[in-house]
Predict the structure.
Amino acid sequence: VLSEFRKRVDDYVKLRKRVDDSVPPLKPKRTAEQIAEHEQALAGKLRQARAGAKRGDIFTPEISAQFALLIRREFRGPEAPAAIRTIRQGDPVSSISLRVNQTYPDTLPVTTMPPTLLLKLPELPKEVAYRIVGRDFVLVDMTTNVVVDFIPEVMPPMRG
Amino acid sequence: MRRLSSLFALLIALALTAGAQRVDLPTNADSVRFAAIGDMGTGGRTQYDVAQRMAQSRQTFPFDFVIMMGDNIYGSESPSNMRKKFETPYKTLLDGGIEFYASLGNHDETNQRFYQHFNMNGKRYYTFKKGNVRFFALDSNYMDPEQLAWLERELKGSGSDWKIAYFHHPLYSSGTKHGSSTELRSILEPLFVKYGVDVVFQGHEHVYERIKPQNGIHYFTEGASGKLRKGGLRKSDLTAAGFDADTSFMLVEIAGDELHFQTFSRTGKSVDLGVIHRNTAAHSAADLPAEKKEAARNTPRSKDGKPVPATAGPARAGLPSPK
């Protein structure tokens, strides 16, 4: 199941690379204007290329179930108190209404990812990252902040 | 016209020196000198005031670069906001050629890694060297296995005298809002101890706190360089010194085996001052048995390797630095 997940992520990265090659590259030492232009251009082209993308394209029901199991183990195991504390200490973001291909709002902070959870999850290529948004578990594009896919309400409630 | 220009220049000079803080750091010729700020990117009055103080302090303490412990920009990262919350407040320093080396906080977009003024070279985490000091800027929002493997490789391969790590989430903190990031500590501290990290700068908690050495490592929280949580520090057994009444910034000078530091408030008041002697024993302790490593790392030593007491203490305005 997890090798299928990796395959789907790799397919996304290949599509993304094709889109990336169609815009001027973003190199280090850029102005804020250049970064904003690149982000918007790339996000726009990604949305076009993934016009039919929907929730579950990467986190299929089987893959979602496997991730749910990994997450449950983390938050019921011996590292759970520390992981929950990490999330709470990191000014966790409350649930927002997510859509695939939406851009994660840049006015919102990011919830800190528990390192012990990251150790248990499948490693990702550098183009994408996991993110926790409220109780949703999200795959985001690292340069455009576009929501690639997500599993709704899989995170345990973080009672304050 | 010439008289008016001269009068204007005189007024500017007076404005800059009015209330200028006294910097009690050695300012040796070959030392590594930098400022440290965190949680600064509000675009508000207090950020601008701290930035002005930093610029003023360069008149007597010419630091060469600034390290940033994250939350560099709050809110939108539109170009106009980047100007308001970074380029304008630090314009004097930027125009003076001062380089800023940023790490990412939970309010920062990862695309800051491409921003020209943050010197991240397109990376979420990176390392750079200044003189005999190797700096490690980490992304504590997302401490994935790849970053940890990179960190261990870089720490292991570093032959620098000093190793300094900085990142956003504090491993040790007496702050009332967040407190110590114990999970992150369980992951990072063993690496820091194993490979002889000397000092850690951290942010996130909107106060200033100097932590007592933990397993031979000195920790500073400077998360009040724009944001402030007044009364947000509940001093604990961890606290060596703290300040939560106003925004602040740090000046640091590393000269040989000594790290001198001074922390200033927004109004130029010195709120902490001291010196850390590099624990030379720790860098050769890798092969010692566990109990001897612990003893070696907790004993500060002078250049000739003899144990000395820690000399960092509470701030007194105008306190001369040890020579």
Q: What stands out?
A: The two ends of chain B are 48 Å apart (CA to CA). Chain B touches chain A through 36 residues (CB under 8 Å). The first strand of chain B starts at residue 32 and ends at 37. Residues 137 and 166 of chain B are 5 Å apart (CA to CA).
